[in-house]
Amino acid sequence: MRGRIGLSVALVCLGTFAIAQKAPDVSARPPERLVSAVSGDDAASGTTGELRAWVARFRDRALQEGVDGAVYDRALQDVAYDAQVVRRDRNQAEFTKTIWDYLDTAVSDVRIANGKAALQKWNGALSQIEETYGVEKEIVVAIWGLESAYGTFRGQNSVLNSMATLAYDGRRAEFFEDQLLAALRILQAGDTTKSDLIGSWAGAMGHTQFMPTSFQDHAVDYDGDGKRDIWGDDPVDALASTAAYLKHHGWTRGQPWGIEVQIADGFDYMLARRSLRKMPSEWATLGVTRPGGTAVKDYGLASVLLPGGADGAAFLVFSNFAVLESYNTADAYVVAVGHLADRIKGRSAFEHGWPRHLRVLTFDERIELQKRLTSAGYDTEKIDAKMGPLTVDAIRRFQADQGVLPDGYPSLKVLDRLRAL
Ligand code: CA
Hints:
Among the domains are: 40-91 and 155-248, Helicase, Ruva Protein, domain 3 (Orthogonal Bundle), CATH 1.10.8; 363-419, Muramoyl-pentapeptide Carboxypeptidase, domain 1. Helix content is 47%, strand content 5%. Helix 7 (109-121) packs across helix 16 (331-344). By secondary structure, it is mainly alpha-helical. The relative contact order is 0.14. The strands form two sheets. Strands 4-3-6-5 form a four-stranded antiparallel beta sheet. A two-stranded antiparallel sheet has the order 1-2. The chain binds calcium ion. Calcium ion (CA) binds at residues 221, 223, 225, 227-229, 237. Calcium ion (CA) is lined by residues 221, 223, 225, 227-229, 237.
């Protein structure tokens, strides 16, 4: 749900790992747009006059979609072009971080301590929410912590204004038109007022940064006051809405997101792909165990995840990992949510470190990596700078053919090897 302020900005910076802005359902931007995302201030060249003309043209469509004409007119009568929002939308793909740099801030000691305090403060409501939706309260709190620092940064932009600006801007017109329509419906339903309908610059709203369409599909009035209020100081509706969202996407209560594992010498790294799922007891026979050598409990089918390559921490990840990806598909985000929840629960830090000497590939290098892999016969299917499972698998196949450890990690070493072909 995202796009935002504060910590949210850190998420936006994850372009490398995946989704640009963290909104559930935010689709990846088309590659050609990514490439043009470097543009400077002149990219945001719209005017309020043109925006208002667009708003007038869009009115028929909104009315066809069930928005009341009076609601529409009042909501957008003073809309003004926001160049800053357009610039941020265009430039966010430029930032990248390694997973370890991200985790340092996302799961800092302060965030863990604040999470424990937040859990204690809202424990009654969170326990009820856990019973209602079957989603562990620590997971809900961890998302709250990452999305808004437990409600500290909920955004200050008018969502109507930002969504209208971005819909008119047109780079991702369809997505933002849908968000604008959803925001209008929120207003029409009376869940909040026009002046309180605020969020991040990208439209992510409230304690857990729901985009308007996610609000429409998943927000609940948990405290029963007749309004789904995710914006106010009381976080209960927002926390329940987040649990409802995760339940809808298939959360399994009692199953971990993932468990840190150690990988035995001689392990076949070609097996470390998300599409290959086995029970932990079977993984144990292949050399994947808890640090210390005992098998991970059979919570369900799991895949081996190596978000920092063979030299970083390794995990068995379960179907709940994929559920968290519905919030944000970046591995770093999902690992952060899961680990923050574990730490709030009192569990220990990861045993294994990260290859901190490696730097993240730049945007241009990631594009080059995908192009070189594809032309060398290791199709990444997309040239979008996102190091998703398809690119990781392509790297792995290339590494295997080169006779090096196929961990799938997009390192400079891999790129150099491709350049030397
Ligand atoms: Ca309520």
